[in-house]
Amino acid sequence: MVFLKRSLPGNSKRRPSFPSQNLQPSVPAASDVTLGPDSHQDNMSLMISLLAEAGCTLSVSGDSPPSLPADPHKLRRHIENRLSSDPSIAPRFLSGLSSYVQNPQNLRRVLIPASHYSGGSSWIESLARVLLLVAPIQPQILDLLLGKLPEYFNADIAHALRPLKDDISRLIVNQLRWLDFIVDSDCFAEKLMEVLSISPTSLKKEIIGSLPEIIGEKSHTTVVLALEKMLLEDSEIIVPVLDSFSNLNLNEQLQERAITIALSCIRTVDAEKMPHLLRFLFLSTTPANTGRIISQIRDQLKFVGAVDPHSARNKKLKENSLAESTDALILDALRSSLRFKNILCEAILKELKSIDQPRHHKVIDVWFLMLIYNNGRSLQKDVQKILKKKILDGCFSEALFDQCITGHRELVKDYFPSFISLCEYLLSCKEKQVRHFSIHLYTSLFGEFKDTYSKQEVVGALVTHIGSGIAHEVTSALDTLILLTSRYSEELIPISSHITGILDYMESFQGDNMHKVYEVFSRLALFARSREDNTRSSIANEVLMIIRKQVSNADMTYRKMGVIGTLKIVSTFGDVNAPSGFLSSQKSNSDDALELLRMSLDSLKLVPLTLILLYDELSALLEDVVLKPEIIEWIGKHVSEFEVMFLSDLEGGQLPTNTFFNDVEGELWINLDGDTSPVYLKILPLLSFSPQQQSESLQILTSQFLLLSVVERLTNQGSLGGIDALLGCPLLLPSSKYLSGVHWKKLTEKQKKTLCFTLFYAINWIRELLNAFSSQIANKVESITPNTKVETMNKLLKRLRNLLVMESILDVILKACPQSLPEVCFSMDQFGTVFGWRKSSERVLSEVIPPKKKKKHKPDPSASGNLGHHGKLRQPTIIDALKKSSMQASQEGSDEGSPRYLSHEKTPPTEHCIVGADELGVIDISAVPKFLDAQKSKFRPLNVDCLSLLCFSEVMDSINKMQLPLYLYILRDFRCKLDDFCSPSKQFPIPCPEKASTVFCRRTTGEFLNKIKPVFGSLRKHLDKAVSVLRSGSATCDNHWKSESCCAGNPVLSNLLVSETSVASSVFIEVLRCYNRILVLDELYHQKNMQILKDLLEAFHSTEVPLNYFSRHQQIPMPGELDYMYYDVYSFLEGILETSFLLSFSLASEVVVTLQTLVNPKIVVSCKFQETVGYVGCSQNALNSLRCRLSLAAHRLLVYDWSSKDTEWKSNGDIIQKILQIYLTNTECTSDLLNELACSILPQVHAK
What's phi and psi for 817, nearest 5 deg? Predict the structure, then answer.
């Protein structure tokens, strides 16, 4: 059916109803006159003679139609004149006509087109049609014809396919169309509706479809009401009813009634008729009703999979095909209705925007967006924004899109380019949640479409993403490919040539992305080798050939690629669950993996950095993948060379006679096992003889030990009992006497360098010892006895004390004699920049060059935010200044004590060395080792397991305050790790730029949170201990520290200094910084991490929460609820703030900053979508209450008189500005505060 627009004018052929006052008095119907048989015959004769007078010859037998004159108007005028001149003729004429048509043959004669009087072959109107245009008798003839209709209902049903000339019912209906006038339209409409209500379905549809051509405008109300009633009884007539509604010239009120009728049929109409209904509704939209129509369609339309049970009963395949066909028709109806109708599309988008609950969204919403997006033009960007927001808010789930795609290939096929385009947009977004959604869509599309073209389109889009050079986009695209290779390897093999395009971008990949590339190729290679098709195995041969070439290449960049590729092949081919190999002519997969590993080790023996990378990556691989026994056995034999390379025997715990190496006297340091120690680590000898070769062997010392410890754990049920002698064995280093001023002055530059390097290697050895043996405490190892565990704990604490002292000594040496330290771990920026990361040399040089030597540039006003809308300079506002100062303060606060480190530092200039080259000066244990930290990237990083040192029960129960420097060291490292996760530049999971390629770098935030969960309680205990020390007011405790240091085997140094108050203050600050950095991690507020959040809050609980905290709550939260726990933590920190007011401004300001982090508004934003995306947080009432208290705390800090307690507070202008911003942003009345600040507080701020 073709529906006409409501704006079209009425049909020009339709005449208004004939005015009844201009007609002769109505003539009684023939049936109202009682006549005998003779009278009927006489009336028929009268009727025939009257027609004959008018020029019409009426046959009484045969099939020939009546013969009419050439001008039918003369016939009508003549009959009308006779009836007007003699009113008695009309009843008799009608009676005769009624008698005549009693015979079906005669009725057919008057209904079929008549012939010319001349007997020609051309046809004109029927006799019934001519008589219907005679006004005096029109109502009676209409009644006569409508009365005849029911007599032929059964005949119509029995002969449904008869031609029109033989179908009496249809002939009668045909006479009613396009009449020039209707004398009594209301009566006729009522009579027609009565007949229509009892008509068979086929005839009913015929009549309803003809109603716009039959009924006058005065009767529209009757028609609409009657059709509404009929629809309730029979939904089969929906299509002709909608056709009539579209073509009837309804007024506004009736049009709305028709729309309401159509809307009520959405749920009940058969699926195959739904497209007609939707077209009618969308064509009927106006600015006033658009919202209602769209809302009702969304709520009631059952889309995708709707099947007509009557036409496809008990036929599964037919049901599916019909469903797809029906849904396709519905989509086509929607698409044609929305095409070129921006107003309608905008109304749909507005309706979708207003929905904020996922349970209210349906499949049709997704298709609405796809259809509008498919139309193109300006609305595409609006669709992208809405889709992104819905995903971020959790309103659109992956399951919702699965209902659109999975199992509906034929539906999606026409819109496949639009789906791909939207996937490309989503994968390019910065938000991780949106990109994960795109990964799911790409995977669904690839799995649903079986044709090669569609799969090539998906792979091509992913390769384009990978070549974009945008870090997060590349990472997500590679994640998608990994997912595809794990599920659809067989489908990817034929189109693998498209995937090899990734190799063109390999030089720009770093870290995790390179791992992912080789994971894709190694999985494809493994699958290809498991098939009996030689052509398929070509990709495996190609991958192996590329890796061999990379490992053998002289360029370090390609060697790095080859190392990662080698280990990916080993992890895939050598996995214990991987197939052994299918073709008899091939080697087994594990043999090929082992051969590649051997070849890589042989090629890298003379390249320490890449060998370090190989050992580190292989260690991480062994932790994550269970390899086949033959590979483990070979690796075990390889690492057994460690003892020969790096260890020597002791004779009764003493060194051999020769203790001088290149004029440097050697000495055993940090011997924890005393005379029972069987071996020592020969660092000084290896550095002294054959410098190039031995120095390179020392570079791989720690990485080879890491591999050794991992293999030992794997082969010894998690225990390191086979190598536990290494934990306590001494180190052969230069004599400690060289650290005194007299002997230090006598050392040559070469000897000083030897001393510096040996300490450097010793420090990294201890770090790796802590990494290895901390796993024995952090993880539950059943084979370790309690006594062994306690002994290991004590040794680890002593090693930590060794590490702290040695780093302090090395920092002082670097300060007096700057050196560029060698590399003992693989740094990610060894080989250039990636996606905007600067080389370490560039960053370090920018840090160490003095301000006076830096090139001066004119300040860029645009960079400072001082440009107005028209590009002109404008006066900075208070808010601009606060934002700028806050950014500077946050950067300085995060960098203080933990500068960002990268490798390849240049030697610091001599003007930075405060101490002369001939003396070392004081060694402060609690100070931040700034000169050592400048080259921190060259040191081995501590693993997360080392945080377990904070939790040792023996230490926690001890009241020995001299343990605090050890925990300060671990806390600073902990804060650096947290900075890597919460840094603004790391919104995406990219490799750590300053660290080696370790497991920590590839750890997700969720995994990290689970790993640090046991530390929460220890943070609280260390904070309490630091507060206790600060309250007691102790100054220094060198004697206590030296006693503990000697027990750990450290050398006795007269210039060693430990300030108890300084250590306690640093512990205080570091604990709070660690706590607030954990609070800003987004993953902490995911529903799955709710218990971790509660544990974190519980760790810092107070003894009791004052009742005035709950003033904004109608009902006081119960203990255990999140609101109560937030109040509890705030109460505890507020108590700490009271104590800090008695100590120093820096401590008090750190507490206020932590309070600000606790009441971060994002916890309520997260809470808003708890039900949608699984976030948890406190209520808005709790947030408002805590922010009010925070404002008061910041105000108190700003107005507090620090002159008598802290003389340096005025120099902390940046911190004061940050506290001021906290005060302003959390107050309820900013204008009054600005007035107060301008008059009383700001004048006190020290001007920089």
Answer: -140, 85
Q: Identify the burial level of 801 via C-beta atoms within 10 angstroms of its C-beta, where 0-12 means exposed, 13-18 middle and 19 or more buried.
A: buried
Q: Dump pLDDT digits (tens) for 686-698.
A: 888 655 555 568 9
Enter the tokens of residue 1004. Answer: 């997700």
Q: How far apart are CA 397 and CA 696, in angstroms?
A: 54
Across the chain, mean pLDDT equals: 80
Q: Indicate the pairing of strand 647-649 with strand 660-661.
A: unpaired
On the 0-12 / 13-18 / 19+ scale of CB atoms within 10 A, 131 is: buried
Q: Which two tokens stand for residue 1063?
A: 């250590």
CA distance to 897, 1021, 1029, per residue, from 1024 (Å): 22, 5, 9
User: How far apart are alpha carbons 1134 and 1038 in whole angstroms?
Assistant: 33
Q: Quick: pLDDT tens for 886-942.
A: 444 444 444 444 333 333 333 333 333 334 445 677 888 888 889 998 998 899 999
In the DSSP assignment, the letter for residue 1052 is P
- Using alpha carbons, select from 152, 272, 277, 259 the residue that is nearest to residue 202: 152
Phi, psi of 991 (to 5 degrees): -60, 150
Give the per-residue SS3 of 1127-1139. Answer: HHHHHHHHHHHHH
Give CA–CA dist 585/583, Å, rounded: 5
What's the chain's Rg over C-alpha atoms?
46
Say which residue the tokens 């009618």 belong to.
280
Nearest to 730 by CA among 816, 817, 671: 671
Lowest-confidence range among 747-761, 982-996, 1231-1245?
982-996
Could you give the residue ranges of the DSSP H alpha helices within 159-219? 168-175, 185-197, 201-214
Q: Name the residue among 474, 485, 476 with its Cα closest to residue 509.
A: 474
Token pair listed for 45? 């004769």
Burial of 871 (0-12, 13-18, 19+ CB in 10 A): exposed
Contacts of 1090 (CB under 8 A, 6+ apart): 1176
Which among 487, 326, 484 is positioned nearest to 408, based on CA atoms? 326
Query: What is the C-alpha to C-alpha distance for residues 23 and 35, in angstroms, rounded to an integer?
Result: 27
Q: What angle do CA 676, 678, 679 make, to 5 degrees?
A: 135
CB atoms within 10 A of CB 754: 23
Taken as a whole, the chain contains a residue count of 1248
HEC letters along 703-748:
HHHHHHHHHHHHHCCCCCHHHCHHHHCCEEEECHHHHCHHHHHHCC
Predicted pLDDT of residue 996: 40
Q: Which residues contact 1075 (CB under 8 A, 6 or more apart)?
A: 1019, 1096, 1100, 1154, 1157
Burial of 502 per CB tally in 10 Å (0-12, 13-18, 19+)? buried
Which letter, b or e, does each residue of 1131-1153 get, where b requires 16 or more Cβ atoms within 10 Å of its Cβ? Answer: bbbbebbeebbebbbbbbbbbbb
Q: What is the pLDDT of residue 586?
A: 61
Q: Helix (H, G, I), strand (E, B), or coil: what is residue 57?
A: strand
Q: Residue 1164: its pLDDT value, please? A: 57
| Secondary structure (DSSP) of 760-800 | HHHHHHHHHHHHHHHHHHHS--TTS-HHHHHHHHHHHHHHH
User: DSSP per residue over 896-942, as a string?
Assistant: TT-----S-PPPPPGGG--S-TT----EETTS--HHHHTTGGGSPPP
Distance CA 1081, CA 996 (A): 23
HSE value, Cβ hemisphere, 13 Å, CA-based, for 1176: 18
Tokens coding 936: 């921190």
* Tokens 């460690």 sit on residue: 642
Look up residue 664 and give its DSSP letter.
Answer: E
Token pair 């004018």: residue: 9
